[in-house]
Amino acid sequence: MDRVTKLPVHRRVKYMLDDRDLAEILRDHWCGSLNNLSDQQIAQFHHDVESSDLLMGEWMSIDWENHHESRN
Fold first, then answer.
1. Are 31 and 67 in contact (CB under 8 A)?
2. How far apart are CA 37 and CA 1, in angstroms?
3. Spatial CA neighbour of 46 closest among 36, 58, 38, 35
4. Are the C-beta atoms of residues 59 and 52 closer than 8 Å to each other?
5. Which of 9, 24, 46, 64 is an S-S bond match for 57, by CB 3.0 to 4.6 Å?
6. How confident is the model at residue 2 (pLDDT cuts 50, 70, 90)?
7. pLDDT band at residue 5 under the 50/70/90 scheme
8. φ and ψ at 55, to 5 degrees?
């Protein structure tokens, strides 16, 4: 499957964690250049997804690396 053209960009991200492929895409975009996520970072990722009302297209347009830096 071509992951880029088949993305459900009009679907809410909070409903995507049950789909392993979609959750991986969300996580990869969310963590950016972060490697070896800590348990706290993984929990933050799940919180960000579950509490979000964003569509996938909106989620993918966020610069999460800068967002992470602003949290620190």
1. no
2. 27
3. 38
4. yes
5. 9
6. very low
7. low
8. -80, 160
Residue 66 is encoded by which pair of tokens?
């800068």
Tokens 């960009």 correspond to 9
The rounded distance, in Å, linking the Cα atoms of 21 and 58 is: 18
Write out pLDDT tens, residues 17-45.
Answer: 999 999 999 999 998 877 788 999 899 99
> Alpha-carbon Rg of the chain, whole angstroms?
12
Token output for 33: 């250049």
3-state per-residue secondary structure call for the chain:
CCCCCCCCCCCEHHHCCCCHHHHHHHHHHHHCCCCCCCHHHHHHHHHHHHCCCCEHHHHHHCCHHHHHHHHC
Q: What is the pTM of this model?
A: 0.80
